[in-house]
Specification:
The chain is built from twelve helices and eleven strands. By secondary structure, the protein is of the alpha/beta class. It starts with 5 loop residues before the first helix and ends in a 5-residue tail after the last helix.
Length: 329
């Protein structure tokens, strides 16, 4: 290079410098993940979402060569944990595992939330879904959804529906059912599934829409009766319970699903890698069996499929929230 004119030397150096930068950036990108990844769950430790994630995680950790560190960040209906992830660097080392309410329900109930989860987060995959069930007390004569709708229409104000918390999918399912039945029901909120079930057993609440996990014992004991699964397919754990579609209400669906997401702007290559690894994990028969035992259906939507689903669910719940004038309490 010494014998070349100065201008040519400068040009060659510039090209070499550019190549070095590109190569360096590429090698750094390939290093991900170079350290453990933090997974924030916006609820107290020991939740079913944590159990589901721990079923899938080991195989993914082995293939990635790094482990996941689960952090529970409860508070403000999950918004504290969600907000922390949104404010984190979009580097693939902070992820969020959050449910239906945080993506599709409470954003329509809080006027000053400060963020839109559908634009502030990049979905990786909808991992699993726990369909809701329409469950009635043994003192309720209805044997299916249509009969229950007819009873409510015939006696406005006579029947109560409960939920384990305002803003939960169970609450919105109850509100949607009441709207479907002519807004003839009274809503009674409870602080958790256990007190709600107690109210059903005593006859204070006639219908509720829990997931299977919380009421499987009462169903087996004949103390409560499931009249529909709010999904498009029956559940293997309760094969004799028809779906809402089979009952004549195909649009009446609901579930507590879980989405893995990253801060908006995370490199698509990282998003795709995580999706493919979790999809592979969900393809394992033992993993799927263990998720089923937790009362959930393994899903594994792609990032684009997950975003499409989130937008659809958000729009559906927004309609229910606005029609019922439901606000955060």
């Amino acid at each position: 290079m010494k014998n070349l004119p100065l201008i040519q030397q400068m040009g060659i150096r510039a090209v070499l410098a550019t190549v070095a930068v590109v190569f360096s950036a590429g090698s750094h990108a390939q290093e991900w993940p170079a350290k453990p990844m933090r997974v924030v769950i916006p609820f107290a430790a020991g939740s079913v979402s944590e159990a589901i994630f721990r079923v899938m995680a080991p195989a993914v950790e082995t293939r990635l060569g790094q482990r996941f560190v689960i952090e529970s960040k409860p508070g403000a209906d999950g918004h504290i944990g969600v907000g922390e992830v949104i404010r984190s660097p979009a580097d693939g080392y902070t992820l969020l595992l959050a449910p239906t309410a945080n993506f599709a329900v409470t954003p329509h109930m809080f006027k000053n939330l400060g963020f839109d989860p559908l634009t502030a987060l990049d979905p990786i995959s909808l991992l699993a879904d726990a369909p809701l069930l329409a469950v009635v007390g043994t003192n309720v004569p209805a044997k299916n959804l249509k009969e229950m709708v007819d009873y409510v229409r015939a006696s406005p104000g006579k029947y109560n529906y409960g939920s384990p918390g305002s803003g939960s999918p169970a609450h919105l399912a109850g509100a949607g059912f009441s709207q479907m039945a002519g807004n003839g029901m009274v809503y009674i909120p409870y602080k958790g599934t256990v007190p709600m079930i107690t109210a059903m057993l005593s006859g204070d609440v006639q219908i509720a829409f829990p997931t299977l996990t919380g009421i499987i014992g009462q169903l087996k004991a004949g103390k409560l009766r499931a009249i529909a699964v709010l999904a498009r397919q029956r559940m293997t754990e309760v094969p004799d319970v028809p779906t809402s579609a089979e009952s004549g209400y195909p649009q009446f669906t609901g579930g507590n699903w879980w989405v893995l997401a990253a801060p908006h702007g995370t490199t698509p290559r990282i998003i795709d890698r995580l999706y493919n690894e979790f999809k592979t994990s969900l393809g394992d028969a033992d993993v799927r069996k263990r998720i089923n035992e937790l009362g959930h259906i393994p899903i594994g939507y792609s990032p684009s499929e997950t975003m499409t689903y989130l937008r659809s669910e958000s729009a559906r719940y927004k309609t229910i929230v606005e029609a019922g004038k439901i606000t955060a309490e």
